[in-house]
Design brief:
Elements lengths: L3 H12 L9 H27 L4 H6 L6 H27 L5 H17 L1 H6 L6 H7 L2 H34 L3 H49 L3 H9 L20 H17 L2 H8 L4 H35 L10 H9 L4 H36 L5 H27 L7 H25 L5 H23 L4 E2 L2 E2 L8 H19 L7 H12 L16 H4 L6 H12 L5 E8 L2 E12 L5 E2 L6 E2 L4 H15 L26 H6 L21 H9 L15 H15 L3 H10 L8 E2 L4 E4 L2 E3 L23 H9 L32 H5 L9 E3 L1 H17 L8 H7 L12 E4 L5 E4 L2 E2 L4 E3 L21 E5 L3 E6 L4 E7 L11 H14 L42 H7 L3 H8 L5 E7 L11 H6 L5 E8 L16 E2 L6 E4 L12 H4 L4 E5 L10 H17 L5 E5 L11 E4 L14 E3 L4 H11 L5 E5 L27 H10 L19 E3 L5 H10 L5 E9 L13 E9 L7 H15 L10 H4 L2 H9 L3 H6 L2 H11 L7
Parallel strand pairs: 18-19, 18-22, 19-21, 22-23, 23-26
Antiparallel strand pairs: 1-2, 3-4, 3-17, 4-5, 6-10, 7-10, 8-9, 11-12, 13-14, 15-16, 16-17, 20-21, 24-25, 27-29, 28-29
């Protein structure tokens, strides 16, 4: 039974009330009182200073009167700042306690500063640290170091000042700029007047306040979580949130033991030994001894303080797991918690505490910048200036730097959303710190170092660090063909100081007698300052140029393609990585990773749901490893390893046939019932795969099937004895150092040290469930939500499986939980989907694969020979030659679909190859790749040592059109950029062209599909949004300034962003008011296939749903009582384009209701948001129904295919039947009757439960004519309307007969159908029956209504006793057509007989057409 904790978690989710977003008045009053009080407190020191001398020593060093403990607290306060308080909890929220490793280094570094630097500072009685350089080396280097301090300190402090806006903006609601201005002005006031004494003593007060506030926050967090800190530890500990020590020697990670100990030590030596911000505080001590005590004791305090901040981050991680909320960045999490969750009074004190840290740090920065400006520059220019002049200049410098920091902070606002602000600030400082520390070490540890040598070393050290920093701030990844290594910022100071010291020593020995003049010093300052500006146009050089071409790769077309796709709303955002010649040559993030519930910018390190890329990233590698170990024979029957797989005629299907998708199995397991929605059920998913029924023989046709890889995942578990996620982690991801690649399982949490998950398949009965102390859903809500809240994870779509009654997370936005419905029901881990990863990790995988495949080197965990086998054609020799494939230049054609082992070579899914990368054929290696439904793709070309990664959130927030064409265009542009084909060919002309037509994983393109150029179709709802609801506003004017609307819609009512028309109209501007929802047959979510529809309520708007479908004719019509309080009915439905599809009738009934209401004095308008028909129809076709047979499947006298959209049909009904009705149509843009649905770029959404693909939509106007007879048209199978069957049909006989008729555009093959046994009781339910399968080879030549007559005639001719032709009259509605079939007339002659009536109908139809 589900645990109480899980129930609590879900209950909290459902009842969660939006928290306040701003401070309460009492809290604002406390904040204001604090700001005034601390400013007045700081001004006290101005009066004290006025009674003493106004010397620089008094202003900048407080006259050496400050006690050691106050200096210690001031040092901690200066290290803390707002930046630390808001950012460090965010570090723990998204990671662990690894930051404390750096703090250990901070403590070691303090010891070295106390021993090396402090004695020299006090010996010389200095005002700034850089005076030491002046004494040791001379004026030139003195100016260089002091100037570098001013530049880098201003840049770093500007970022810190920016952090102020985060807190003030959240707490008070002021804009970022105004927030910064308020705090900056108040801090400037007391710093300007009081000098260093004011700085230190306000530091002491403010540190006491924010430490006390932090402790209060810890207690408050515990009180907000059931079970308090015990529960926080229980949830966070298994997820390693308290993990601290990482002893790996990895220069790419910020937080390891060695990076902390060494990097942190050198960082502290630089910050506390060479940075005037800290040195100035220590110089204010009474003597050397007290200065040392202050420095060392501050290290103990800082460790304690950072631990408190990290604990808060862990607590927030658990809290926001229970109460999901999206933040613009992790730096906003803690401030948001304070404002939204803290009790009144406490929240105000905590915000005041954070502002205290801000003001403390800002005041120190202003004082140190001013002191360096005056002492190190002005006093050298005006040594004769008296005390009054120097004090005036000091105050002027303070004001000047306040303005500079304000400007930098404002500039940072537009860049503050990426990463942690604390890491940004530290990385800026670290770039310069290395060179500064190296110079100070040269001056203190050597006697031979000269000014010339020290400057040369400093230039080299700074340049080295800046180059290492470049990839984090620009797209540059290489310089001069040499890749820039990725180095964590924690190593910058160590590297920079070592380079400075080593090269400074060498240069000193070489240039012992040379000196530099003032002009050279100025040039050096400019040289060192230049990198902090922005390069106009950084150039990325790479080996892609090649010695012969001499042309640098230009990836501008790649960016143009992605940016245009985002502008056209084909996807919210994306990350593109292109690798070539052994390194990354292009990497960039575009757009947004989230649009709901708030906008989040895309970043390069975004974590994506990789969807079907899991097949090659995980399962394929795992199977091939077991093949290498001799545990799997690729050509052995799967049933040899998994006996349960043999059922239903699958005993001879081989492992290779699963890996190539030539198994003859359908696309997916049955998802019609509610299995796995409430509690994950891995066993049931595998059982359904084992029980699947082939649609045809193995080794003949290619059909992309998730069942294949569900089975392969079970095979890995059964043979290895490990769960798939554990196996992939240890044997695939770990060897490749793919640290952020993993499955996100949804299983049970039992204790801090134990988490239950189903055992590997075949190793015990998984239905036994978890131990008694756990349950299959114990705390699963907490675990799932904890995964979801990684702020870098891109959300996908809303969970639309089942209903709110059967699915606890129905309509919740999926974030961190796998999107694939089958994998989600199985608990997040399956062979076909479930892996989450980043572009960087995917690049590691691709590069390692190329290295092993091309050079037989590197960590890829397969042999070179195995990779060659896997990426070569493995399709069977018996494969049919009618599948969709592509020519070398990317044009669709037909032939045998070519697949490797797991990898795609040339099939209907190979569009991402583009037009340049070569096709792999037998004997000629080429490129290969794979895609994922969520918008992910990877294409690899060994012939040019290149890979192209495109990771997108294309289905966010509510589905979206496939991006296969975009993938191909990006690959083409990438290939041309690296000159993947010879110079002087078409590759040199990189042109961005529009191209449409999509290949969907769940709906492969038809063999003859035309790739139409043109813009994406905008449906009526899109046009309504673009015109700011002008049609509805005009309607409101006709109704006394208000518009109360009812909406007739279902699951197809979506705009191009995937947003529901329901939600759009519910939030439409006044005076539009959504008051009622109506749905046609199948209900609001399109899943009910019965006349007895269950009552529904929309979960978002809470509006009841009036279902217009039932057993009586009156049930299907709107009632005037339901319309009485409405001014208009808005209709947004996707029609199928045939008269027997009942959405046409429901529209007609509403138009009639409008006319009836007008007669009764009720002005009820009908407003149709138009949508395309599913098939191209330039003219009406099919038998015209007889008068007097009007019914729900035959609204009026018309052909079976009337060739009108619902908007046109509504105008037709108004003009021909209900003239008093008021009908308005919001027409589409960029659509014509010549277009098939696949040409529109619109996402496919099943318009009804059994119309599941664009393939079926093309066949439906023909096969649908037989729907009411005694054959199965595929209802209850995975592909209705693509095949038919009956127990008495002879499959080969019927296929041969129909093929012998030479029906244009269609091929017929024998098959079997397995019809589900469920509550619908479809014809032949629970049986496997013989039948035939239809494939449209040329949809333009294919005439569906005539084909329907061919089918009826064939069944009547071959099976006159069994086939009940008379029942077809329900759909035909034409006595003459039925009689002609009964007589045995040629179907072509029957179709020709319709011509006169069709011409007459077309003449009437044209008057109402809105499109060509």
């Amino acid at each position: 039974m589900p645990s109480s904790i899980s129930t609590l978690g879900l209950a909290l989710l459902s009842t969660w009330i939006a928290p306040p977003t701003r401070l309460a008045p009492v809290d604002l009053a406390l904040v204001a009182a604090y700001l005034v009080a601390i400013t007045v407190f700081g001004l006290r020191f101005s009066k004290k200073a006025g009674k003493q001398d106004r010397s620089l020593k008094t202003y900048f060093l407080a006259g050496n009167t400050i006690p050691w403990w106050a200096i210690a607290l001031s040092i901690v306060s200066a290290e803390t700042s707002t930046l630390t308080i808001v950012s460090i909890p965010g570090v723990a929220f998204g990671g662990d306690f690894g930051f404390l490793q750096v703090v250990l280094g901070y403590m070691v570094g303090r010891v070295l500063v106390a021993l090396l630097f402090l004695p020299r500072y006090f010996r010389g009685e200095m005002l700034t640290a850089y005076q030491l350089i002046d004494q040791r080396f001379g004026h030139t280097l003195h100016k260089v170091t002091a100037g570098l301090f001013l530049i880098t300190r201003a840049a770093a402090e500007g970022v810190r000042v920016f952090a102020i806006s985060i807190v003030v903006g959240i707490a008070i609601g002021t804009g970022d700029t105004l927030s910064i201005a308020i705090i900056s002005a108040l801090t400037l006031l007391y710093t300007f007047e009081g000098g260093m004494a004011a700085v230190i003593w306000t530091d002491v007060v403010q540190m006491g306040l924010y430490v006390a506030g932090t402790v209060v926050a810890l207690f408050t967090l515990g009180a907000h979580i059931p079970g308090g800190w015990t529960q926080i530890h229980a949830v966070a500990a298994p997820l390693h949130k308290f993990h601290m020590l990482d002893f790996s020697l990895n220069l790419t990670q910020n937080y390891t033991f060695w990076a902390g100990l060494l990097g942190g030590s050198f960082l502290t030596m630089a910050s506390h030994g060479t940075d005037q911000l800290m040195v100035q505080r220590m110089l204010a001590a009474r003597n050397l001894r007290e200065s040392r005590i202050a420095l060392l004791s501050s290290g103990v305090v800082i460790f304690f303080q950072f631990t408190l901040f990290l604990l808060i981050g862990a607590g927030l991680f658990v809290f926001y797991g229970l109460h999901p909320q999206v933040f613009a960045s992790s730096d906003r999490i803690f401030p948001s918690f304070i404002v939204q969750q803290m009790p009144h009074g406490v929240a105000g004190l905590l915000v005041a505490a954070i502002l205290a840290a801000a003001m403390s740090n800002l005041s120190a920065a202003l004082n140190s910048l001013a002191s360096t400006t005056v002492v190190d520059f002005y006093m050298h220019l005006r040594p004769q200036a008296d005390g009054a002049e120097r004090t005036l200049i000091s105050r002027t410098a303070t004001v000047f730097w306040a303005v500079v920091l304000f400007a930098i902070a404002v500039y940072s606002i537009q860049h503050g959303g990426k990463g942690h602000v604390v890491e940004t600030g530290l990385s800026i400082a670290s770039v310069a710190y290395g060179a500064l520390l190296g110079v100070f070490l040269l001056g203190t540890l050597t006697r031979y170092a000269t000014q010339t040598g020290a400057i040369a070393g400093m230039v080299f050290g700074f340049t080295t660090n800046f180059i290492l920093w470049l990839p984090s701030i620009t797209p540059i990844r290489q310089i001069g063909g040499i890749a820039i290594p990725h180095i964590a910022f924690t190593w910058f100071v160590l590297i920079g100081s070592s380079v400075t010291f080593a090269l400074g020593s060498l240069a000193s020995l070489i240039f012992r007698k040379q000196s530099l003049n003032k002009a050279t010093a100025a040039a050096l300052i400019l040289l060192l300052a230049t990198p902090f500006g922005r390069a106009e146009k950084p150039v990325i050089l790479s080996e892609a140029e090649g010695p012969a071409s001499g042309i640098a790769p230009d990836f501008t077309p790649v960016s143009a393609l992605i940016q245009r796709a985002i502008a056209e709303k084909k996807l919210p955002g994306a990350v593109v990585v292109i690798g070539h010649g052994g390194s990354i040559v292009f990497e960039r993030a575009y757009g947004n990773r989230a649009l709901e519930p708030s906008i989040e910018p895309m970043t390069e390190d975004t974590i994506f749901d990789m969807a079907s890329l899991s097949k090659v990233l995980s399962t394929t590698v795992a199977v091939l490893q077991l093949y290498e170990q001799g545990k799997i024979d690729l050509d052995a029957p799967v049933a040899k390893y998994l006996p349960a797989f043999a059922q239903n005629g699958k005993d001879r299907i081989t492992v290779r046939e699963l890996m190539t998708h030539y198994s003859g199995l359908p696309e997916d397991v049955d998802l019609k019932d509610d299995w796995g929605l409430t509690t994950p059920d891995k066993a049931e998913g595998i059982r359904r795969a084992m029980a699947s029924v082939p649609y045809g023989p193995a080794g003949v046709t290619f059909k992309y099937s998730d069942i294949n890889f569900i089975t392969l995942g079970a095979l890995v578990e059964s043979i290895s004895g490990e769960t798939l996620n554990s196996y992939a982690k240890e044997h695939v991801f770990k060897p490749l150092e793919m640290a952020e690649t993993m499955y996100h399982p949804i299983f049970g949490y039992c204790s801090p040290s134990y988490s239950w998950e189903p055992p590997p398949y075949g190793h015990s009965d998984p239905r036994l469930g978890p131990p008694q102390r756990c349950s299959s859903s114990a705390n699963s809500a907490l675990i799932r939500l904890a995964l979801e809240k990684n702020p870098r994870t891109s959300p996908t779509a809303h969970d639309n499986e089942g209903s709110s009654a059967t699915n606890p997370l129905f309509d919740h936005l999926l974030r961190g939980t796998v999107h694939d419905p089958t994998t989600r029901r199985m608990g997040g881990v399956a062979g076909h989907a479930g892996v989450f990863s980043t572009a960087a990790d995917t690049a590691k995988f691709a590069q390692a694969l190329l290295d092993k495949l091309l050079f037989d080197k590197g960590p890829f965990p397969l042999k070179q020979s195995t990779l060659k086998l896997a990426t070569s054609p493995n399709e069977p020799s018996t494969a049919v030659k009618t599948a969709t494939i592509f020519t070398a230049d990317g044009k669709p054609t037909t032939g045998p679909a070519s697949r490797g082992l797991g990898w795609d070579l040339n099939s209907a899914f190979s569009r991402p190859r583009g037009e340049v990368f070569p096709i792999t054929t037998k004997g000629h290696p080429g490129s290969f790749g794979h895609t994922g439904f969520t918008g992910t793709s990877l294409w690899i070309d060994p012939t040019t040592d290149t890979y192209v990664i495109l990771l997108a959130n294309a289905i966010h927030p509510r589905g979206g059109a496939p991006i296969s064409v975009l993938r191909g265009q990006v690959a083409t542009a990438a290939a041309k950029a690296i000159h993947a084909c010879p110079v002087s060919t078409i590759c040199d002309d990189v042109i961005v062209t529009a191209d449409s037509g999509e290949i969907q994983p769940d709906a492969p393109r038809l063999a003859s599909e035309t790739w139409v150029s043109g813009a994406a179709t905008l449906t009526g709802i899109d046009v309504l949004e673009q015109t700011n609801f002008v049609e509805l506003k005009e309607a409101a004017k006709r109704h006394d300034g208000h518009l109360r609307i009812g909406l007739l819609t279902n699951q197809t009512g979506l705009d191009s962003h995937g947003r529901r028309t329901v939600d759009i109209l519910a939030h439409a501007p006044a005076p539009i008011q959504l008051k009622a929802l109506f749905t046609p047959e199948h209900g609001l979510f399109g899943k009910q296939d019965t006349e007895h529809l269950k009552a529904e309520e929309d979960a978002v708007t809470r509006l009841p749903v009036l279902n217009l479908y039932g057993p009586k004719p009156s049930d299907k019509r709107p009632k005037q009582t339901d319309l009485a309080n409405l001014d208009a009915i808005v209709i947004d439905l996707q029609d199928a384009g045939v008269r027997f599809y009942t959405y046409e009738s429901i529209v007609g009934y509403f138009v009639e209701a409008s006319a009836a209401a007008k007669k009764n004095g009720h002005d009820l308008e009908i407003i149709v948001l138009d949508r395309p028909t599913l098939t191209a129809s330039l003219a009406a076709d099919g038998p015209i129904s007889d008068p007097g047979l009007e019914a729900y499947v035959n609204y009026m006298v018309e052909p079976s295919t009337p060739a009108m959209t619902l908007g046109e049909l509504a105008k037709f009904v108004q003009g021909e039947i209900a003239s008093q009705a008021t009908v308005t149509v919001v027409p589409m843009r960029d659509w014509s009757h010549a277009e098939f649905f696949g040409d529109t770029h619109l996402a496919w959404v099943n318009p009804s439960p059994n119309l599941k693909s664009a393939r079926a939509a093309v066949l439906y106007p023909g096969i649908g004519l037989a729907e009411t007879t005694n054959i199965s048209i595929g209802r209850g199978t995975d592909t209705p309307f693509e095949h038919i069957g009956a127990p008495w049909i002879q499959s080969k006989e019927l296929a041969d007969y129909l093929n012998g008729r030479n029906i244009p555009g269609v091929r017929v093959t024998p098959t079997t159908l397995t019809v589900a046994e469920d509550a619908n009781k479809y014809p032949s339910h629970g049986q496997t029956i013989p039948g035939v399968h239809f494939e449209v080879a040329d949809r333009k030549a294919f005439e569906a209504p005539e084909f329907g007559i061919e089918l009826l005639s064939a069944l009547h001719r071959l099976y006159p006793a069994e086939f009940q032709l008379a029942k077809a009259q329900t759909i035909l509605c034409s006595a003459s057509t039925l009689a002609a079939i009964e007589r045995g007339d040629d179907p072509r002659a029957i179709a020709a007989s319709w011509s006169p009536a069709l011409k007459e109908f077309d003449a009437r139809r044209r008057k109402y057409l809105l499109y060509q």
